[in-house]
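Reproducibility note. Readers wishing to regenerate the assembly model reported in the main text can use the exact inputs given here. Chain order matters: entities are listed in the order in which they were concatenated for prediction.
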Amino acid sequence: MKQLLSGNEAMALGAYHAGIAVATAYPGTPSTEILESIARMEGVYTEWSTNEKVALEVGMGAAYSGVRALVSMKHVGLNVAADPFFAASTTGIVGGLVVVSCDDPGEHSSQGEQDNRHFARFAKVPMLEPTDSQEAYDLMLLAFDISEQFDTPVLFRATTRISHCKTVVDVSRERENASRRAGFTRAPQKYVMVPSNARVRRHSMEERIEKLKAYFEGFPHNQMLLADRSLGVISCGVAYQYAREVFRDTSHLKLTTLYPFPADLIRKFAGEVDRVIVVEELDPYIEDEVRRMGIDVFGKDFIPIIGELNPEIVENGAVEAGLIPAPQQPAKKPETPAPQLPLRRPQLCAGCPHVAAEYVLRKLGFKSAETGKELAADELIVTSDIGCYTLGVYPPLAALDTCACMGASIGQALGLEKAGVPNKIVAVLGDSTFMHSGITGLIDVVYNQGNITVIILDNETTAMTGHQGHPGTGVSARGVKGGRVELESLVKGIGIEDVNVVSAFDIASLEATIKRCIASDGPSVIISRGACRLAVRAKAAPYEVDADLCAGCFDCMDLGCPALFVSGDVVRIDAEACAGCGVCAQVCVQEAITKVES
Amino acid sequence: MNDINVMMVGVGGHGVILASDGMAEVGVENGYDVKKTDTLGMAQRGGSVLSHVRWGQHVFSPMIKKGEVDFLMGFEQLETARWAPYLKPGGVAIVADVTVIPVSIAGGKVPYPSADEVKRILLQYTDRVYMTASARIAQETGNPRAMNMAMLGFLSQFLPLPPEAWTDIMRQRLPPKFVESSVDAFTRGAAEAKAIIESKESGT
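Running the prediction on these inputs yields the following structure tokens for the assembly.
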């Protein structure tokens, strides 16, 4: 049956047909839809885990019992899960264990760019990478077989343009292996990695890689396509599609097994063509390997190492390098320079519960708009984290000083304090991020007697990735009631005494609480609570501006609310966009903003 | 079977993804190889949305090369102007009567281009620019969100498939309560295109 599936949907369906019994993940673009798809299927235990490390540990446990498990995450999630990833490589598995890493070249929605193909070699784990949704489906079925045949987790790597691209898939299989029963066989030499056992397993790991090398030599999804022999293009992932688009008549080698490399196949291909080039996104991963084999190769010389590729980048590089002739110039040449068009940045939504807290932080702690010079002692440092609220770094809010990785805000704040900066320090992070890895930082603050204020922006969901549940919501991956970890009890339980819960829409309370907390000694936590406007909270009656009262001071525009706009010399509110949170009315000194009477 | 490259651009909430998904499904149903990809980083938070839809005998890249877009579907005028350079010379630009002022200029720094300015930018790449009344048409159906279907209706007049090829998919895939207004918007959008094309051909 032919279906149009995204790469993520195809991976999910492939795993389902491979018979997975357990699927775990922490949401992260571009990987999120894998678990969301599986959560709609019957017969698989699915969970949003607290973080990627836990997700992989749950997957390991399931695989030890003999059933098949899929664990999915975004590229930076594998950094978090690296510890169990290496451990799973050492112990091996029983039931198939596949770890999906969805990389985000070009950082469409990520704090950094990294090429997770390196993780496979690093952890000595075989890696597969599809070139479209059909292959995502087919390779996923094979990945579980490989995992079990070679006693190893398998790294399944995709990128944004594989995960989020829809292509036609012939879905050929039914669900298999679903009747397997979980049962644990005691085997401490395999599962208990004390040094004496781990040393033995190291040998198994190296033997496994040798066997996989041989196996991948004949792997059916590595394909050699011989045409014009003057040029031979090696590529993988979506870059293969760009290579086929740009190098129409040349010979191609498509690689889907990226670790270990099918060296004989690559040598054979190199022998068939006059010159070998590599088209790959991000690092020269294939290129370095080919060069190490003693084959003369041309790759990052004409393909950028940074960012997402697309057909014109590949074509322009190939033309400049003289590999292909220049395409014909368009008949119609546009005028230069191109007209200036305003940017459209992502922004916090109308009615977003993060706005008021960030507005207050801006007002209290950012005296100067200048950057690049040392802060005066009376300014606040606001360390921040990964989530929607990070958008508060953009003007007009411009209320954040850092954003590094999940949970880092709290540790960074403590580090700044212990280093001795004269400023008061506030760490800001979301509810899901706090559960993910903020909690460990806060335990450190209690233990080491930090004197910082942590603001947990509790919007009662994982908003940025599309409103998934997390431990604080008590809503499971299948959207049903689960256990709930209450933030305030959790925070009190680890020893924070100064715990405050404030409405996210009450500027006066937020301001008074933040002022009091930063002035007092000892660590404090402020939970700014207000549900996300998207999907969680319904719209309330909109507000309007009395144009006669509006003095045109534009103070309310500092909120950056997309429902507010300037019309002539007064502010107006787009009633369609307004969510009725009333934050702008609290900011207006003229009291010109009021709720629309129905 | 000629390749057909369609780029749809807009901002979150305009139904760009639903329209491009629908167009992709129509292509598959009618025997094309299809690839479609979206760039929607943080679309729900006011960012721009971009879809590439490609129909062909065998499609390799999901992304369309600059200068090879046959149809640029602009669900929002500023975004349409932004992606104008992707048009193939002689390609078709179909532009909705929709503007969304970004917050970056809500205070009034870089001006938002007027409809005439948007048209002038597009005309640098092609002579075939159609400013539609898709949003107004959707309003008339009683379902303002069907603007995307009016846009698809307009596009359908340039493609080699009968209206049923489109409306069948709409009936299968859309929630029942939106089907009639969506088909209505599609039909009105197609009629609008037909009227404009005929008036152009007759030189009036």
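We highlight two features of this model. Residues 176-201 of chain B form the longest helix (26 residues). Helices of chain B lie at 16-29, 77-82, 115-123, 134-141, 147-156, 163-173, 176-201.
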